[in-house]
Design goal:
Radius of gyration: 17 Å
Helix content: 40-55%
Largest sheet: 7 strands, mixed
Strand content: 15-25%
Order of helices and strands: EEHEHEHEHHHHHEHEHH
CATH architecture of one domain: 3-Layer(aba) Sandwich
CATH topology of one domain: Rossmann fold
Mean pLDDT: 97
Structural class: alpha/beta
CATH class of one domain: Alpha Beta
Oligomer: single chain
Number of helices: 11
Strand order of the largest sheet: 1-3-2-4-5-6-7
């Protein structure tokens, strides 16, 4: 499993979502490295972590081994989008290794609108050999209008990196996500938590995130960033790092 490991201090393990990678959290690591150790990964089967067999269960097990054998101390798990579901399953599987949870643009289950969107995307990609050109189709669904108009260079970088993904891997990860459901775990989350979303997040709209947070016994705070979509670590990186740093200091 490919691992980026930066900084020193209490550890945070960042888990990317569908189509992403460890690079999502490179800026966060640099902003926090003076006080915290930020560990980010390419999930097995994606990016620079080649694997032929992987699933939600194997991702959770692999992350558990990473924490137990390499980090060797309880961590804060930060899960983005699909990473939120992985983090919830990790809490159910190895809670003794977790001291806090941060949910970014995530819900315990894909909502119907997004389920339909991704199902149609799978159909469109079936038989396609490369993701070339697909970055520009995906970016309007994950970035705010502000980012699309004011920071096209950031959007273009995301699009290029998205298109590096293998089509087969992306489809397989889509199917894992569509079949995932961590709703039964939520009532058992009694650890310090934080939920973050963007005002324009289509995958995890603020109202849905607030409802999710209210269903968690530990009653996490919800931070909603204005003029931000599904990728706050790329869209409002300074504010995102400030909020995460403040939370980490409480864990």
């Amino acid at each position: 499993m490919y691992v980026d490991d930066a900084g020193s201090g209490p550890p945070i393990v960042a888990i990317h979502g569908l189509g992403g990678g460890a690079y999502f959290f490179g800026g966060l690591a640099r902003r926090l490295e003076d006080e915290f150790r930020v560990i980010s990964i390419d999930l097995p089967g994606t990016g620079r972590s080649p694997a032929t067999v992987y699933s939600m269960e194997s991702w959770v097990a692999d992350l558990g081994r990473l924490v137990a054998e390499r980090v060797k101390t309880p961590v804060v798990l930060l899960g983005h989008s699909m990473g939120t579901i992985i983090a919830l399953h990790a809490w159910a599987a190895w809670p003794e290794h977790i001291r806090g949870l941060v949910f970014v643009g995530g819900l315990p289950r894909v909502r119907p609108f997004i389920h339909d969107r991704l199902s149609k995307r799978i159909e469109a990609l079936t038989g396609v050999r490369e993701l070339t050109g697909w970055g520009r189709q995906v970016s309007p669904g994950v970035f705010s209008q502000r980012m699309l108009h004011e920071h096209p260079e950031v959007v273009a970088s995301f699009e290029r990196l998205f298109e590096v993904n293998s089509v087969d891997t992306y489809i397989r990860c889509c199917r894992i996500l569509l079949g995932a459901n961590a709703e039964a775990i939520v009532p058992n989350v009694r650890i310090r938590s934080l939920a973050i979303t963007g005002e324009d997040d289509q995958y995890a709209p603020p109202a849905d995130v607030v409802a999710f947070a209210r269903s968690i016994p530990s009653q996490p705070a919800v931070e909603t960033f204005p003029n931000c979509g599904h990728l706050p670590f790329l869209e409002v990186p300074d504010r995102f790092a400030t909020v995460v740093r403040a939370f980490l200091r409480t864990c």
